[in-house]
Amino acid sequence: MSISELTTAELQSGLQAGTFSAVELTQSYLDAISRREESVGAFLTVCGESALSQAAAVDARRQSGEQLGTLAGIPVALKDNICTAGTKTTCASRMLENFVPPYDAHIVTRLKAADAVLVGKTNLDEYAMGSSTENSALGKTRNPWDLQRTPGGSSGGSAASVAARLTPLSVGSDTGGSIRQPASFCGVVGMKPTYGRVSRYGLVAFASSLDQIGPFATDVTGAASLLEVLAGHDERDSTSVNRPVPEYSRSVEQPLEGLRVGVVQEHFAEGIDEEVASSIRAAIEVYRSLGAEIVDVALPHSKYGVAVYYLIASSEASSNLARYDGVHYGHRASEFENMVDMYAASRAEGFGDEVKRRIMLGVYALSEGYSDQYYLKALKVRRLIRNDFDAAFKNVDVIAGPTCPTPAFKIGELVDDPLQMYLADVYTISANLAGIPGISVPAGFSPAGLPIGLQLLAAPFEEEKLLRAARMFERETDFHTKVPQF
Ligand code: GLN
Questions:
Q1: Separation of alpha carbons 17 and 14, rounded Å
Q2: 169 membership: H or E segment, kind and range
Q3: Which of 178, 309, 403, 422 to mutate to test ligand 1, by most ligand atoms within 8 A of the CB atom?
Q4: Residue 324: strand, helix, or coil
Q5: N or C: which end of the chain has fewer CB within 10 A?
Q6: CB 173 within 8 A of CB 442
Q7: Among 443, 454, 467, which residue's Cα sits nearest to residue 227?
């Protein structure tokens, strides 16, 4: 077995035992990148040299007996909407194609303090708007399980990087499903923490009331170790919550006694592929066989989730993206007649179609005379969605269901049909609207060999429970051990 097929925990113990050095480990992942990246296209930037020098520094400090951080020597890739001082952060947009941030995002500072090795920046849908990574203006990412298919999105590069074993861990952001949906499509673990659990400082804002940073890993324990580093209070994000961070990586191995698993019958109704439905039913049976009680729960307002999300997310995006005008930030057109024309031309050239669509939707929903009807109404329904979850979590510990209605779709299949594309997130969006944590874990393969993800949701700040429940399932199954061959 090659190094790149080991789990994060195995890598950590290999490094500690001196079976391989951090430089050897990093080099083996960089070799995997040179072999496979051309087919996958997970990265927008690979920082090979700086990764090797970070690894060398870790080895030297280990030699001298220094106490090292929890991710010492472990390669990590970052979605390219997370600011890295001195390294381009493009959001996969022409607008920020040459933007080099002057500062690190909070989570980058945390990763450095944990002695992780930062390998590069991954592809995404422009400004994280999309579900297939096809909206990237700077590259195409393919699903390692079938190179004709999308990896999902918007964190498609981060998901594909872990699936293709180009890095053992990666970081994404999830506004409406952008970690969980690509995790499901790529057969890896992806988690969106509770809103406020991880600082958004240095994450380029898409929809500030929904955005949350989270981990990808090949297994639940790896995701727990990474979340432990990402999570925690940061004064620079006023929505970051000041609560202790549990030792997720330790508690994750403890099974839950008397687990109550909620199931929403509507999840199995229209629009879901039969192959997905049967894998998810089988996953629920795994919990039953472990002694869990399976309880029906109702989330009657979640059916409005997609509509509410596209109003709220687009409204916030239209405001957040106003700063990219070629003056404060971003691309400036080279030809224009006057100042107003310069703004217009810069934005017309800098943004892609989907970003423009969201800005127009958002500006419309917020406009005088319409904001009561659209934006404010959406906020009220958002509250009802949250209330449904609050009620459900009085009776169950986690809610289990499909992450996505289908396995990965083909490149080009939905790109001209925005509404169908939006529906890829029907099951993931409500968690963002409610602010609750969710995880996707590998739970099967379609007859064509495409991964299927099980989504588990929990009450706010119950990440520990969520990870433990996910690990219980993972321990009984071997889907997460399969590696795509290409
Ligand atoms: N696919 C959803 C969208 O296009 C969610 C994106 C995300 O979570 N960043 O907005």
A1: 5
A2: strand 169-174
A3: 178
A4: strand
A5: N
A6: no
A7: 467
The pLDDT, as a whole number, for residue 419 is 84
Helix, strand, coil percentages (3-state) for the chain, rounded to 5, are 45, 15, 40
The tokens of 443 are what? Answer: 């739970």
- Looking at per-residue pLDDT, the higher value among 270 and 163 belongs to 163
Give the integer Cα–Cα distance in Å for 359 and 361. Answer: 5
- Residue 372 DSSP class: I
Q: What are phi and psi of 151, to 5 degrees?
A: -85, 5
The SS3 call for residue 239 is: coil
Distance CA 177, CA 400 (A): 15
Asked if 79 is an active-site residue, the reply is yes
The mean pLDDT value for 104-126 works out to: 98
- DSSP bridge partners of 231: 198
Residue 152 CA to ligand 1 center (angstroms) comes to 10
What's the CA gap between 412 and 201, in Å, rounded?
34
354 near 130, Cβ under 8 Å? yes
Q: Span 3-258: which CATH code?
A: 3.90.1300.10
Instruction: Indicate the pLDDT class of residue 5, thresholds 50, 70 and 90.
Output: confident
Residue ranges lining ligand 1, Cβ < 6 Å: 128-131, 154, 174-178, 206, 313, 425
pTM over 0.70: yes
Strand locations in 53-157 (E) = 75-79, 117-122
pLDDT given for residue 284 in this prediction: 98
Q: Catalytic residue at 154?
A: yes
Q: How far apart are CA 111 and CA 104, in angstroms?
A: 10
Mean pLDDT value of segment 184-198: 98
Distance CA 199, CA 227 (A): 12
Catalytic position from the list 4, 21, 79, 249:
79
Instruction: State how far the Cα of 134 lies from the Cα of 417, in Å rounded to an integer.
Output: 12
Distances (CA, A) of 115 to 186, 243, 462, 463: 27, 23, 27, 23
Six-digit token string for 377: 């109404």
Which atom of ligand 1 sits closest to the CA of residue 354? 4
Minimum CA distance residue for ligand 1 atom 10: 129
Residue 206 CA to ligand 1 center (angstroms) comes to 9
Alpha-carbon gap, residue 275 to 259, rounded angstroms: 26
Question: Atom 4, ligand 1: which residue's CA is nearest?
Answer: 130
What separation in Å is there between the alpha carbon of 468 and the centre of ligand 1?
27
What's the rounded Cα separation, in Å, for the pair 73 and 351? Answer: 37
DSSP state of 87: B
Beta-carbon count within 10 A of 102 CB:
7
* 318 has catalytic annotation: no
pLDDT band (50, 70, 90) for residue 452: very high
Ligand 1 center to residue 181 CA distance, Å? 9
